[in-house]
Amino acid sequence: MNMTETWRFIAFEKHDPAYNMALDEALLNWHSEGKIPPTIRFYGWNPPTLSIGYFQQLEKEIDMEAVRRHQLGFVRRPTGGRGVLHEHELTYSVIVSEAHPDMPQTVTEAYRVISEGLLEGFKKLGLDAYFAVPKTADETAALKNPRSSVCFDAPSWYELVVEGRKVAGSAQTRQKGVILQHGSILLDIEEDKLFDLFRYPSERVRERLQKQFAKKAVAINALRETPVTLEEASKAFHYGFEKGLGIKLAPYTLTREEDAYVAQLAKTRYATAEWNERR
């Protein structure tokens, strides 16, 4: 890029699960209609929420009793991937046209380019993060066939890792010529709570999966001497996306009309049983 391009930035705010997914979709729609430039958004979840991937089978994989017992929100994402507990985290989304000159054509490569922003953010927090690329045919095959419903269980192509463990989980969808990538940057993780939310063939299987998970995934605050606040994390990743993507971020607040559109989409889609329970 010769001229630094300016993208829009929507600063961290907590919303309910349906609104969060509706806003990501609304940004995708507006960008596809040429109403807004590429946009990056940071957000949180109120209440803490279990989100599941677009293709997941609710009945088979999720223990809704446990979701209610832990007083969690619940929503199905428009992106693939597996179950994520959104609680102690900074969630990000990136909305950019597939035709953007800096976006590679393939999902995997576009994922890597966008994730450069995450990489720089982790470095800013003093973590030695890097991209994991599967080295063997076995590893590549394992990516196509994840064994568990839990998102952080499998490092996928270009997953960000620190000391061999996954530090961010992201998912991508492409609709209307636009890429939407969103993901979780974990500050802390309550493993027992997370593992309560899924169904297992037996208690033994749960124990095994939970043990494996602890070896594969890690939250930022487990890697640092001093814990990171949400504010510090927001600053670091704001810097990271500007540096990693070579852009400037200009703050933006939704207009009243935009907000009403999002609320309506949340109500008619992401808050409905048809959407959330449909598989």
Helix and strand topology:
Elements: E1 5-15, H1 17-32, E2 39-45, E3 49-52, H2 58-61, H3 64-69, E4 73-76, E5 84-86, E6 89-97, H4 107-124, E7 129-132, H5 137-144, E8 159-162, E9 165-166, E10 168-175, E11 178-186, H6 191-196, H7 203-216, H8 230-245, E12 247-251, H9 256-270, H10 273-276
Parallel strand pairs: 1-2, 1-12, 3-4
Antiparallel strand pairs: 2-6, 3-5, 6-11, 7-8, 8-9, 10-11
Helix pairs in contact: 1-9, 4-8
Structural description of this entry:
The protein has helices spanning about 15-30, 60, 65-70, 105-125, 135-145, 190-195, 205-215, 230-245, 255-270, 275, and strands at about 5-15, 40-45, 50, 75, 85, 90-95, 130, 160, 165, 170-175, 180-185, 245-250. It has about 280 residues and is an alpha/beta fold. β8 (about 160) and β9 form a beta hairpin. α1 crosses α9 and α4 crosses α8 (about 230-245). Mean pLDDT is about 90; it is low at about 150-155.
Can you tell me the CATH superfamily?
Answer: Bira Bifunctional Protein, Domain 2
Give the overall average pLDDT.
90
Strand order of the largest sheet: 10-11-6-2-1-12
- Tell me about the largest β-sheet: 6 strands, mixed
Number of domains: 1
CATH fold type: BirA Bifunctional Protein, domain 2
Helix content: 25-40%
Whole-number radius of gyration?
Answer: 18 Å
Kindly report how far apart the N and C termini lie: 43 Å
Low-confidence stretches: 150-155
CATH class type:
Alpha Beta
Going by CATH, the architecture would be 2-Layer Sandwich
The succession of helices and strands, N to C, reads: EHEEHHEEEHEHEEEEHHHEHH
Strand portion, in percent? 25-35%
Structural class: alpha/beta
Number of helices: 10
